[in-house]
Amino acid sequence: MPRAVTERGRPAGILAVLLLAVAPALAEAACLRGESTVFACQSTQGKQIEVCDAGRTLSYAFGRPGRPEIVLRVPRAAASTWQWQGVGRYVSYAVNLPNGNTEYSVYWGMDRLSDEHEVEAGVHVSIGGRPAATVRCAPGADIEQNIEGIDLRAAG
């Protein structure tokens, strides 16, 4: 059996190995019964971006439908949100989910004063506070967005 390693190449603890072993089973259905969808869309690469609310925890899943590459579950107290304050032309909302020094910021926004009201949505990934990647929802894709008004602490 291959050994799991951390981002820095050190051997992972037994808990990390167990999490890797059960992650595929947990990943089959990102939003489980009793959970509500906070955000869901299909990316320009055909991968799902999904955030689910289970009350005490929030989960983030990314990858092909039924075969996510990343599944993360965080305590509600660790997550944060950005909520539009009602000022300015750009309406934006985000849910931020930390995983060690990596943060997944799932976002939705639109220019409310443009004629098209085109939506921008996806996930920004930062590592150590620095931008690492952005994956956008496919243009014209169905986007389920329930970030507005979510009961989380305000992002700093």
Describe the structure.
The chain is mainly beta. The protein has one domain (28-154). Helix content is 9%, strand content 47%. It is built from 1 helix and 11 strands; from the N terminus they run H-E-E-E-E-E-E-E-E-E-E-E. The strands form 2 sheets. It has a 6-stranded mixed β-sheet with strand order 9-8-7-6-5-11, with no helix packed on it. It has a 5-stranded antiparallel β-sheet with strand order 4-3-2-1-10, covered by helices on one side. The radius of gyration is 16 Å and the shape is globular. The model is unreliable at 1-10 and 12-29 (pLDDT under 50).
Give the secondary structure arrangement, pairings included.
Elements: H1 14-27, E1 36-42, E2 48-53, E3 57-64, E4 67-75, E5 80-83, E6 90-99, E7 102-111, E8 119-127, E9 130-136, E10 144-145, E11 153-154
Parallel strand pairs: 5-11
Antiparallel strand pairs: 1-2, 1-10, 2-3, 3-4, 5-6, 6-7, 7-8, 8-9
